[in-house]
Amino acid sequence: MRSKFTIPAILICIAIFWFPLRATSQDPANKSGKIRGFIYHKFGQESQYPSTSISTELFEKHLQYLKQNNYTVLTLGKALERLHSPKPLPEKTAVLTMDDGYKSIKTHALPLLEKYGYQATIFVATSHVGGNNYLSWEELQALREKGFEIGNHSHSHSHFVNYDPDRRIKMFKQDLEKSQQLFRENLNKTVELYAYPFGEYCPGMQRILRKQGYRAAMAQRSGVIHKKSDQFALPRFPMNQYYGKMEKFREKIGMYPLGVTEVDPQNPVLRDQKQPEFTLAVQNNRLNPGGLQCFLDGERNCTVEAREKNASMLLRVQADRELDSRRTTFTVTAPSREGDEWFWHSRVLIMPEYGE
Ligand SMILES: [Zn+2]
Questions:
Q1: For 346, phi and psi rounded to 5 degrees?
Q2: Would you tell me how many other CB atoms lie within 10 Å of the CB of residue 262?
Q3: Which residues, 6+ apart, have CB-to-CB distance to 338 below 8 Å?
Q4: Ligand 1 center to residue 161 CA distance, Å?
């Protein structure tokens, strides 16, 4: 039976726990200092490629929404520069990223982006450039001249994590070298931003990018970028004909970062671990821990437990079932104490097929 002391005891604990936190201002989930990023692939080919394409009509609705709601749309490089500068970012800042460098960026998205006066960051896989359906180097250069930003999406667009760590790192380095050489030859520029093919990475790959002078790298996990986000696994909300529906777009753009400052274990690549668990260190003095929820690929198949750790909160996340796909997304959400905001963090765990 529940003790009559339970509720007062909980309230006292919450009071002790929250008051010191409320006094700290360095909260990564605070109102300024966040970027809502989106990832698109193809435009106007949604009947053929529903998971990677969005109709021009729906894409224009996104742009209209950003305009009508006074969003500042920046390239990723500019947004990150502002995020880490003393001058605060506009409270509503969005970044549009496009992976793979498909031709439809020029034929379908560009006219709309020009109409609304926005630029995007395009991550290209250099072995694809100039191929059927892909932008050419000349077209990429022309986009750069219009203010678009070009980032590296690898040379070969490989599943690097399929290889054992030593071989993986060797391949990744060679691939980076090849792509950088092509960027230099064709755009006369060394690129500084990276997006992992398929969003798959490991800490070793992150270290290589850091060593080679990259400023940041994007994963393919949904969420809001904040000052303490892992700079080499930045989140962005995926957009296609389904996830891009206006009610979903409005929901995502209204999200706040959960305020995760550390993830343990850091490596998202699993080895013989079918029902994984991990912890998230969270700094967020507006979060209501009673409203925490965990989703595994959109369904309530995971558990999240919160406990206090020093001045932050530690969330233990565990899968309630065995994972059965190559990539599985864990999403943790919680409302603010006032109930007027939602916090969001997601993480993708990868079960590679070794020895491909
Ligand atoms: Zn890609």
A1: -135, 160
A2: 14
A3: 286
A4: 15
Question: CATH 2.60.40.10 in the chain, residues?
Answer: 262-350
Phi, psi of 252, deg, nearest 5: -70, -45
Specify the residue for token string 């290209």: 124
Structural tokens at position 142: 């022309």
pLDDT surpassing 60 at residue 32: yes
**What's at 191, amino acid-wise?**
V
Is 302 in contact with 317 (CB distance < 8 Å)? yes
State the distance from the centre of ligand 1 to the C-alpha of 232, rounded, in angstroms: 17
Range list for CATH 3.20.20.370 in the chain: 34-255
Q: Report the CATH number of the 262-350 domain.
A: 2.60.40.10
Q: What is the mean pLDDT of residues 251-256?
A: 96
CATH superfamily label, 34-255: Glycoside hydrolase/deacetylase (3.20.20.370)
Query: Mean pLDDT across the stretch 162-185?
Result: 97
Q: What is the mean pLDDT of residues 208-221?
A: 97
- Please tell me the pTM assigned to this model: 0.90
* Sign of the torsion formed by the C-alpha atoms of 70, 71, 74 and 77: positive
The alpha carbon of 6 and the centre of ligand 1 are apart by a number of angstroms equal to 51
Q: For 28-45, what is the mean pLDDT?
A: 85
Dist CA 153 CA 235 (whole Å)? 15
> Ligand 1: distance of its center to the CA of 158 in Å?
9
Mean pLDDT of 62-82: 97
Mean pLDDT over the full length of the chain: 90
Q: Cα of 302 to ligand 1 centre, how many Å?
A: 28
For CA atoms 243, 245, 248, 251, the dihedral sign is: positive
